[in-house]
Structure of Septin:
Amino acid sequence: MAATDIARQVGEGCRTVPLAGHVGFDSLPDQLVNKSVSQGFCFNILCVGETGLGKSTLMDTLFNTKFEGEPATHTQPGVQLRSNTYDLQESNVGLKLTIVSTVGFGDQINKEDSYKPIVEFIDAQFEAYLQEELKIRRVLHTYHDSRIHACLYFIAPTGHSLKSLDLVTMKKLDSKVNIIPIIAKSDAISKSELTKFKIKITSELVSNGVQIYQFPTDDESVAEINGTMNAHLPFAVIGSTEELKIGNKMMKARQYPWGTVQVENEAHCDFVKLREMLIRVNMEDLREQTHTRHYELYRRCKLEEMGFKDTDPDSKPFSLQETYEAKRNEFLGELQKKEEEMRQMFVQRVKEKEAELKEAEKELHEKFDRLKKLHQDEKKKLEDKKKSLDDEVNAFKQRKTAAELLQSQGSQAGGSQTLKRDKEKKNLGLP
């Protein structure tokens, strides 16, 4: 019998029985709380928005501290994500807070691909967690979870409508992270404009199918307050680390020539609502939604890409081992097929190469024969020319010899005639 069938039978046969006395497992919640407090908590916030909307200031105001960080330069050609982790302590609870900022978002002339580095960063954190889960020896209890739990999307207080960059980016992110839209520097527009702006933003998000994070209402203890706060989204916030004396109290505020804007005054902005919903009421739900919804979606898609499935083609349960074996056999079959294809391709290429070499050898032989014949022809021409020159030289020598002989004979004949005349003169007695 399969393990899944046994588990199903155990679940169906479960009975409720009364206890005769105190056992003690009612202390499990306390044990869980003590263990969680001793281990500490982590929370990761992604701040997305254009330059100059007060993202860093709002983070300092939310956590009532001054986060030290290097000032960002906005001369990069693209969007860069900068992550900073801080250890915070409140009472006996420790929080490892990671703030990820989008440096250069919206600074480019061409903003078409501004969302891609953000999506890649979120997927990279999911992939790192998945790889840790798939290890044989896992250390998830000490693993620093870097998955983004909340995305605060800062909207410029234009008072008109959302920019196309905002709509495209939120649409790409809504299936990967819990988006909480906020109107930054809301003191830049009037109350009436702000109300209309909120309605316009909500309408555009709905019409474009952007799924923002909704505060949960299934828990009775927070259902009322969360239901009320859902109606206030997007929150219009103001951030300030400057404290001014108002009445007899020092309060965070912004001083203007026309008056003072109090950060924690709900009549001035929604900062208190944001802090209550983000930190004091729904922080654990944001962490849970990240794990059970967004990470599970990424994990399922990734494992399906790898070939893992829950059911076979007949919709019957499929164990991980069976899936692994099926995938392994499929991989081996594909490997053998590729090996055969490579072998055939290798043989084909060898034959083609042999044919090319034979053709090249044939061309070389033909070229050699042509050169050899040409050499022989040239040699014959040279020999004929040499023979002709030798004949001319021999003829010249013969003519030269004949000329010398004639000349010699002529000289001898002239000498004998002179002697004869001298002798005749002598006989005649002539002088």
In short: The chain has two domains: 35-306, 318-384. The mean pLDDT is 88. Residues 367 and 405 are 56 Å apart (CA to CA). The beta strands are 41-48, 80-90, 93-103, 150-155, 179-183, 235-236, 243-246, 249-256, 259-262.
